[in-house]
Structure formats: structure tokens, C-alpha cells
UniProtKB/TrEMBL annotation:
The protein's name: Bifunctional peptidase and (3S)-lysyl hydroxylase JMJD7
Coiled-coil segments on the chain, per record: none
A molecular-function term among this protein's GO annotations: metal ion binding
Gene Ontology CC: one annotated term: nucleus
Major localisation: cytoplasm
Subcellular location: Cytoplasm; Nucleus
Length: 311
């Protein structure tokens, strides 16, 4: 078992030396589908594409005044937390946000300081909320990214809308989707780690719970009794506890900022942690590739990391 653990660790380090970049590269225009598949999707490497959204009316239209007029009365799902950490480890719990139904105008009022919310608010529902809750905005952008759909041979499985406060943080996690993350206004800041760094990234299993705001404005944590424990990453990459998780010293995180008009290609199974500027608006396209060869390959590495106790 020790020899297997050693080989898994060596493989992770070799990946950085052989093919992974030391920073996230930029492409200056929308790529050719086949070339993009060969250079980025197949090797499973992230990049930032500039000038890929320049034809979207949303870049100039999506001001607070326009959004109030267009969708201000729409009632949408909003994640509310006391500290900005939704879907994150808190002590011995994996705590999810309070899901609140609010008008879009109310969310804008909170972001602009016109109304006190008593928490941190983030529009982050990820079940194609742009199409389901805000279809009035779809004329301001593409229904899909044509060159990505051509490269993968399918349309996106979800199109999500994101809007929130600077205090809203997405904790470190991974998804099995091929992800195109498009910033319409503001800036998103990512910390990225490749799937091959899995042996260095700690996991635990946690009792699921949700935040609930009481009538006095304070938040409490309410267990979801009867639910299975949730595997999640307890480490904060902004301030990693290296005494507790010494293997993380061997991880090599990449940091990048995605600005308005730019698009991040985030490959499937890359670990990511996200922060944003206040009032940042973004749209992302998810392409579900759970059963492709690349996904199965990295799932094998995940299983080997767990079996060898590499974290």
C-alpha cells in the first residue's frame, strides 16, 4: 500500500512537470472548436478567453436600472448566510444556505445599500436558474457558446446566473461539468487546483445542516436529520492550516482573475475556490460529461487517493 501511495503522489507531481501550466493562459479570441478540444478539453487544462463575449448586449445593458425594469418584479431564489460561506464546512457540519424567495429588486436594493438584509446574499441557484427564473434576460446573450457546443457535440445542460456581494465565497470543491464561466460585470477571483492534486487535498464527511435566520435576526444552524453525511473539503486555500493538513504543501494552486467580458474555461473535476467583486454579475454554461473517458480516468485517481489514504 505504501508503494502505491508513493506512486500516486509521484504521478501528481509529474503532471505539473509534464503538461500543466504554471499560470492560466489567455486566448485572445473565440477558438476553433477542434483546436480547442485538442489544446484544452482533451488535456484538461484551464484558460481564459478574451473577446468571446463582445457581441453580448448584456455587457452594456445589465445595469441596475435596466435589470430593475426588465426583471425587478421577478421572484427568484437567493442564498442567504451569516458570513458569506454557503455550502461549506463549519466545525463538524456541512452547512448550506437558507434559500429565500425574493424579488430581484430587493436583491439589488441590498447590494446597493438601500436596504439592510441582515446577512450575505448571493444569487447562486445552479439548476439553470437563468433559463428557469430569468428567461427575460436570455435575449441579451447567447443561449449557448457555439464553438464549445461544437467541440463537445452537445448543448449545455444548464445555464446559470450569478449575482452577489463581495463577502459571498464559494468554498473549495469540484464539479463533473465542463464549465465556461463568463463575467458580465465586475471580477471573479479563482483559486484552481488540477484533479491530479487530489492526493494533497483533504476531505472529510460531515453532518449536513442549513442556516436559518431567526426573528431576532441571528442565524442558527439546523441539522438535516436523516440525511447522509456529505464529503467535503475542510481546507480554506486562502489560509490553509498546514499543521493539520501538511500534504497540502505539495499542492500547486493557480490563481486567476476573470474580468468583465472574459470567459474562463474550467475543466471538469478541477478544484476551485471563488471570490468576487461587490455586485459582480456572471453567467456560466455547464456541459455534463460525467461518462467520458477523461472523467473516468480522474475518478480512478480519486479512488486511489482514498484507498491509499493520501490525504
Amino acid at each position: 500500500m505504501e508503494s502505491l501511495k508513493k506512486r500516486v503522489t509521484e504521478f501528481s507531481l509529474e503532471a505539473h512537470e509534464l503538461y500543466l501550466n504554471q499560470s492560466v493562459p489567455y486566448l485572445e479570441e473565440s477558438p476553433d472548436p477542434l483546436q480547442f478540444y485538442r489544446d484544452w478539453i482533451g488535456p484538461n487544462k484551464p484558460c481564459i478567453i478574451r473577446n468571446a463575449l463582445s457581441h453580448w448586449p448584456a455587457l452594456s445593458r445589465w445595469t441596475p436600472d435596466y435589470l430593475r425594469e426588465k426583471v425587478g418584479s421577478k421572484v427568484i431564489s437567493v442564498a442567504v448566510t451569516p458570513n458569506g460561506f454557503a455550502d461549506a464546512v463549519n466545525g463538524d457540519r456541512f452547512v448550506m444556505p437558507e434559500e429565500r424567495r425574493m424579488s430581484f429588486s430587493s436583491v439589488l436594493d441590498i447590494l446597493e445599500g438601500k436596504q439592510q438584509g441582515g446577512g450575505v446574499f448571493y444569487v447562486q441557484k445552479q439548476c439553470s436558474n437563468l433559463l428557469d427564473e430569468l428567461p427575460e434576460l436570455t435575449d441579451d446573450l447567447q443561449p449557448h457558446v457555439s464553438w464549445m457546443s461544437a467541440a463537445l457535440g452537445k448543448l449545455p445542460d444548464a445555464v446559470n446566473f450569478w449575482l452577489g456581494e463581495a463577502r459571498a465565497v464559494t468554498s473549495m470543491h469540484k464539479d463533473h461539468y465542463e464549465n465556461l464561466y463568463c463575467v458580465v460585470s465586475g471580477e471573479k477571483n479563482f483559486i484552481l487546483l488540477p484533479p491530479t492534486d487530489r492526493p494533497f487535498i483533504p476531505y472529510g464527511t460531515y453532518q449536513p445542516a442549513v442556516y436559518r435566520q431567526r426573528d431576532d435576526g441571528e442565524f442558527e444552524v439546523v441539522d438535516q436529520t436523516g440525511s447522509e453525511k456529505v464529503p467535503w473539503i475542510p481546507l480554506d486555500p486562502l489560509d490553509p492550516d498546514l499543521d493539520r493538513y501538511p500534504e497540502y504543501r505539495r499542492a500547486r494552486p493557480l490563481r486567476c482573475s476573470v474580468k468583465a467580458g472574459e470567459m474562463l474555461y474550467l475543466p471538469s473535476l478541477w478544484f476551485h475556490h471563488v471570490q468576487q467583486s461587490h455586485g459582480c454579475i456572471a453567467v456560466n454554461f455547464w456541459y455534463d460529461m460525467e461518462y467520458d473517458i477523461k472523467y473516468n480516468y480522474f475518478q480512478l485517481l480519486e479512488a486511489l487517493s482514498e484507498v491509499t489514504g493520501s490525504t
